[in-house]
């Protein structure tokens, strides 16, 4: 067996080398670079710098590497070999990413599963990925025991925080006990880990990420070391240009979105390794509003709903000001921010009296708002996964937080295009990453080609061939357009386009966004109209409906009570009316129904990334949809 010293890793120079020439490595490894080189580099160059925070847990980079190596040794002792899959089913916590890196060190492929998966869905992804060992939170152990018989490849469940009084059943082991023993053996058995790590090649899978499954069971997408490191290099280049120098060691971010999603995995987990960033892990995302002001991150990723809720909270705060003066002040600040932000993002000029008020609002309002949100130090604010309403983007830009929209998908390791830090444009997801080719097919579909494209889907060669053609073009399924400056605008999903009976083709995403963005009370909206003369909508309340009602002294005990309340229905009607007013006549919904239930991924209407499962909704609510058309007469749409 080779010795650990046979392949020494030497930093090219002082300062973190990622994206600035790479690592100098000697021996048989030649000049190849994998994620493990970044872990080693941080431990060598920044051993005492803070790597992660998880409640009371605080690990330096040297401690991070040592614990990941201990987990790698545990996996090797449990029989995990090169190319085996190690499942991860945990909240965002230190052990999640340490086990992820430990699996790679053992030569295995980590695969995180969404915590919101139902038993049937979890059994599918665990069987499809053929996980041999799974690291799980104790709270999820009953779910795994219930599906264990459906997983013939599963040998061990490593459980965290298992009650000491519980006698583990066969095949269930206590994570902490195994890691403690392995930690004591690292000095003598380190070469075993080095040998397993040495087998890793840049073209090998770094992880398997399952798609959201909007049209069926999710597909396991292979993400290679090369793809992930290449994307991070592009982001680093943009940051260096923006800052005028390298990213400072010790910058911070928070990890609260599911690590089963490629965007969170890249933005917090991998980026932390690439730039020695300190990550605070948020086990309960509901606590994010309290954690952000305490951490004050330099980088922050939010899906559109997060940014919308922040914006909604600010508007709610303005509405609830007891002082009439303060209420007018905050409302005026919101209005000024929207106008100034719109002007900045469209290259136009705000009205002169708005420009005069902006410096005052910065001193009196915006500075406090940024501090209250915990985003007063943010240098890179990102939104992805879906389009962000223009009003929200403009407001944050006007109050001093420029949100960079990113376009990508699981198959592209999260990124294909992004808004330039110095020149974002309203309504656009920016320009292609250098090295990525974008092409708009004759039918409007966005096609992409580049080094970050997945080599394929796990166990699905037919699906791979359908997604990636013989010339290497990935068919994204998105409909879009490129302007003369190379900025990309996404207008809808190819498979989701509605073809009405009158011959109109409509993208539902834009309609649904317009209908839901006018009120914090409105949650998911589903628009229907295939082979119908007009559009109708199913509307649900936002998960924060109870707080919205309580703030207005609307006393309800259930969502059914809320839906039946006249003031709630009036607010929803106002929101739908405002959305219709912003749409063309053919896009306007002619009828809608407010449902007395919440749509969730657990209930089955949404994917784990909160996208609509359109075929499921259309089937489940077939009767409700048909009832919406019953009162509509021919005159209702005769002018369409």
From TrEMBL:
Keyword terms of this UniProt record: Fatty acid metabolism, Ligase, Lipid metabolism
Domain of life: Bacteria
InterPro entries referenced in this protein's UniProt entry, alphabetically: AMP-binding_CS (IPR020845), AMP-dep_synth/lig_dom (IPR000873), ANL_N_sf (IPR042099)
Domain named AMP-dependent synthetase/ligase: residues: 43-458
Family recorded in the similarity comment: Belongs to the ATP-dependent AMP-binding enzyme family.
Record-linked PANTHER family: AMP-DEPENDENT SYNTHETASE_LIGASE DOMAIN-CONTAINING PROTEIN (PTHR43272:SF32), LONG-CHAIN-FATTY-ACID--COA LIGASE (PTHR43272)
Record's protein name: Acyl-CoA synthetase
Native species: Pseudonocardia yunnanensis
């Amino acid at each position: 067996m080779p010795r650990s010293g046979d392949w020494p890793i030497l930093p090219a120079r002082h300062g973190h080398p990622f994206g600035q020439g790479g690592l100098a490595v000697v021996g048989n490894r030649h000049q190849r670079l994998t994620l493990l080189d970044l872990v080693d580099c941080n431990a060598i160059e920044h051993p005492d710098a803070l790597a992660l925070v998880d409640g009371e847990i605080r690990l330096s980079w040297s401690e991070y590497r040592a614990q990941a190596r201990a987990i790698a040794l545990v996996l090797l002792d449990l029989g995990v070999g090169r190319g085996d899959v190690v499942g991860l089913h945990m909240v965002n916590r230190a052990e999640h990413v340490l086990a992820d890196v430990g699996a790679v060190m053992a030569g295995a492929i980590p695969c995180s599963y969404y915590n919101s998966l139902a038993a049937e869905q979890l059994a599918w992804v665990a069987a499809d990925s053929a996980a041999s060992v799974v690291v799980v939170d104790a709270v999820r152990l009953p779910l795994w025991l219930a599906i264990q018989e459906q997983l013939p490849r599963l040998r061990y469940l490593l459980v965290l925080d298992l009650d000491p009084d519980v006698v583990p059943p066969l095949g269930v082991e206590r994570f902490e006990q195994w890691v403690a023993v392995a930690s004591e053996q690292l000095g003598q058995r380190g070469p075993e880990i080095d040998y397993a790590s040495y087998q890793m090649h840049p073209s090998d899978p770094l992880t398997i990420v399952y798609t959201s499954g909007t049209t069926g069971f999710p597909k396991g997408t292979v993400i290679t070391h090369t793809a992930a490191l290449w994307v991070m290099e592009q982001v680093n280049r943009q940051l260096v240009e923006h800052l005028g120098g390298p990213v400072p060691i010790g910058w911070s971010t928070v990890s609260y979105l599911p690590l089963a999603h490629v965007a969170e995995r890249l933005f917090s987990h991998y980026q932390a390794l690439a730039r020695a960033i300190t990550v605070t892990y948020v086990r309960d995302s509901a606590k994010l509003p309290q954690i952000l002001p305490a951490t004050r991150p330099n980088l922050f990723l939010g899906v559109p709903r997060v940014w919308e809720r922040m914006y909604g909270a600010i508007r709610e705060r303005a509405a609830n000001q007891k002082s009439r003066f303060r209420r007018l002040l905050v409302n005026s600040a919101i209005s000024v921010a929207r106008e100034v932000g719109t002007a900045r993002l469209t290259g136009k000029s705000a009205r002169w009296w708005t420009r005069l008020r902006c410096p005052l609002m910065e001193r009196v309002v915006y500075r406090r708002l940024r501090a209250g949100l915990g985003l007063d130090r943010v240098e890179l604010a990102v939104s992805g996964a879906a389009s962000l309403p223009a009003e929200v983007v403009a407001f944050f830009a006007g109050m001093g937080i420029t949100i960079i929209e990113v376009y990508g998908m699981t198959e592209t390791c999260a990124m294909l295009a992004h808004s330039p830090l110095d020149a974002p444009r309203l309504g656009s997801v920016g320009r292609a990453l250098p090295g990525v080719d974008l092409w708009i097919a004759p039918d409007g579909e966005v096609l992409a080609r580049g080094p970050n494209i997945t080599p394929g889907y796990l166990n699905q060669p037919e699906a791979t061939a359908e997604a990636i053609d013989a010339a290497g073009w990935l068919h994204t399924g998105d409909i879009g357009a490129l302007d003369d400056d190379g900025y990309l605008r996404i207008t809808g999903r190819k498979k989701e386009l509605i073809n009405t009976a009158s011959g109109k083709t409509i993208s539902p995403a834009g309609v649904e966004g317009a209908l839901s963005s006018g009120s914090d009370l409105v949650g998911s909206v589903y628009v229907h109209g295939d082979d119908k003369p007009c559009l109708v909508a199913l509307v649900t309340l936002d998960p924060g409906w109870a707080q919205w009602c309580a703030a207005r002294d609307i006393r309800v005990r259930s969502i059914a009570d809320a839906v039946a309340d006249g003031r709630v229905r009036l607010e929803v009607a106002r929101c739908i009316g405002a959305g219709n007013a912003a749409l063309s006549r053919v896009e306007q919904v002619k009828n809608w129904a407010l449902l007395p239930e919440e749509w969730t991924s657990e209930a089955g209407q949404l994917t784990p990334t909160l996208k609509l499962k359109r075929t499921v909704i259309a089937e489940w609510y077939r009767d409700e949809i048909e009832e919406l058309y019953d009162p509509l007469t021919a005159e209702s749409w005769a002018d369409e």
